[in-house]
Amino acid sequence: AQAAFMPQELTTVRVQDPRVQNEGSWNSYVDYKIFLHTNSKAFTAKTSCVRRRYREFVWLRRQLQKNAGLVPVPELPGKSTFFVGSTDEFIEKRRQGLQQFLEKVVQNVVLLSDSRLHLFLQSQLSIPEIEACVQGQGSQTVTEAILHYAMSNCGWVQEEESRP
Fold first, then answer.
1. Which of 24, 68, 131, 132 has its CB 3.0 to 4.6 Å from that of 137, i.e. a possible disulfide?
2. What is the Cα 127 distance to its own chain's centre?
């Protein structure tokens, strides 16, 4: 009966707003906004908003796999070099796949214990910076890096910038 008083832990994670960066150049890529809102004690910041590209998701999944032991890590949407349909359709499918991936990841206690995941979702550190931070070689601890980002304005972007 005690459980009735425990607030339900809820984590909402959304992948939104795909944007093409360096458009028109040979090294153009798409990045996505990851919006996270939670009341879970597992997270340092209760709201966060970062931009990540597919390649960074691939890195994250590999790292989670390394550390998760026998825990299965959710799949990412395919890399699919051969795609029939418009680029927009492809980007939208990928966005949905990335969101499903993160939704499953944040529900997994084992994966949630990986500080790389937290830096990926709640700081704008690059992959090498995340690695350095996790290994204690960065200028900040994992928590400091997340709080530092949360205090900067970009960490508090309201979801959807409340469109008219």
1. 132
2. 12
